[in-house]
Design the sequence.
């Protein structure tokens, strides 16, 4: 069978199954069964698929995924994260778009403690959206910062998706986690600058209000009590990896234990809350692991059928420069991000993109960071960005889906500007890992 026909059969069937509403994990499974029957010899192919499943999910390098997710879920469900955001609110004085500024700073702090963009967005939305709308904030300047800052958890460690991408692409997980710090902080800085400039030019977007006058001690004490101890958790998790004292798996376990200790110390711990955090972590982790298991066979079938090598030869024959091919890969990711979840994007594109990036001589660490940034953008890309629906779920009934879509657009433009900066200045992604190497 010609490689073009093989590629059309596999990808076409996958897209068709997802288009009719089949869950992503089961869509991959269905395609694998068809591919095993057609390209891997039927019964031997199905046996190989079973062996692939065991090999994929027994990979120890995937252990940080549920542990990083558990960190954020514990802090979210125990209410510790909300207390930290309230403390940051008391610290910030009267500035244009004050509550939106609190959102970005508070969300960035929580991103350093959570591997889950969903938990990050839910915390910010439930804590701040109602107050912003009540004070007359325009939905764009209220919801936009919540969704865009919520997605920063994709970049700033601990990031569960960075662990997944690194393990599947053969990129050092420790270096990929560290590489996301500068892009994540740059993203937050751009959001802050945009909010302050926009609200100064058009004060009606975020009407000023009288901020409670607090003394120096009253202003700083909640921050020192509710935020600094949580930042110590971040230092423990990231610092242990930077110093080489712990692997990403060990640092993730350390962070989960530290989150439980923090909840107990703040007298917010209870067994029902822990059970809820474990249940939510399990749901997300099982979905991710199921797709990973299916994706291994999917990649093998693409390679065995000749689709992967045929596509690479076609691209090589075009004679385009590496930069143009890189832009084309990013464009494909941006397009896919509007219609599917991030794990599916990784699984569909990695079998093609990693060999292509290697053949072009691209730095895989830099390329991995670019993929993470694109997937961060896809979280808020209409029509199916996941955080759009998280936001709609916590917003008042008066907020329409169209309002949420419009709120994302200015921040998507800002994220694309940051993406362009990382493409043009690779050191933004590779500087910290290179210091780690030294």
Sequence:
């Amino acid at each position: 069978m010609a490689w073009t026909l093989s590629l059309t059969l596999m990808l076409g069937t996958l897209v068709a199954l997802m288009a009719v509403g089949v869950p992503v994990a089961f869509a991959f499974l269905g395609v694998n069964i068809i591919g095993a029957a057609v390209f891997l010899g039927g019964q031997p192919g199905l046996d190989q698929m079973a062996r692939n499943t065991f090999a994929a999910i027994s990979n120890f390098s995937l252990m940080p995924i549920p542990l990083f997710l558990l960190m954020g879920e514990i802090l979210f469900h125990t209410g510790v994260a909300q207390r930290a955001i309230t403390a940051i609110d008391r610290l910030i004085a009267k500035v244009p778009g004050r509550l939106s500024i609190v959102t970005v700073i508070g969300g960035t702090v929580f991103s350093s403690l959570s591997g889950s963009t969903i938990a990050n967005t839910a915390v910010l939305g439930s804590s701040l959206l109602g107050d912003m709308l009540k004070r007359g904030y325009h939905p764009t300047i209220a919801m936009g910062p919540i969704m865009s800052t919520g997605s920063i958890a994709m970049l700033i460690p601990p990031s569960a998706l960075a662990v997944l991408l690194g393990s599947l692409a053969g990129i050092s997980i420790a270096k990929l986690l560290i590489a996301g710090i500068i892009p994540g902080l740059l993203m937050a800085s751009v959001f802050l600058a945009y909010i302050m400039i926009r609200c100064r030019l058009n004060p009606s977007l975020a009407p000023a209000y009288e901020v409670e006058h607090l003394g120096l001690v009253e202003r700083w004490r909640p921050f020192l009590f509710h935020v600094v101890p949580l930042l110590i958790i971040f230092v423990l998790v990231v610092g242990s990896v930077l110093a080489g004292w712990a692997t990403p798996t060990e640092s993730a376990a350390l962070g989960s234990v530290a989150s439980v200790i923090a909840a107990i110390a703040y007298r917010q711990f209870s067994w029902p809350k822990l059970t809820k955090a474990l249940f939510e972590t399990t749901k997300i982790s099982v979905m991710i692991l199921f797709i990973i298991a299916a994706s291994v066979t999917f990649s093998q079938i693409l390679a065995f059928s000749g689709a992967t090598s045929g596509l690479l030869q076609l691209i090589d024959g075009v004679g385009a420069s590496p930069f143009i091919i890189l832009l084309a890969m990013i464009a494909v990711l941006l397009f896919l991000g509007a219609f599917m979840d991030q794990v599916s994007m990784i699984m569909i594109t990695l079998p093609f993109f990693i060999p292509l990036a290697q053949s072009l001589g691209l730095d895989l660490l830099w390329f991995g960071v670019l993929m993470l940034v694109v997937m961060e953008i896809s979280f808020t890309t209409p029509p199916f960005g996941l955080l759009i629906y998280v936001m709609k779920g916590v917003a008042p009934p008066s907020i329409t889906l169209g309002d949420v879509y419009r709120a994302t657009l200015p921040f998507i433009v800002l994220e694309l500007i940051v993406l362009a900066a990382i493409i043009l200045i690779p050191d933004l992604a590779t500087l910290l890992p290179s210091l780690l190497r030294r």
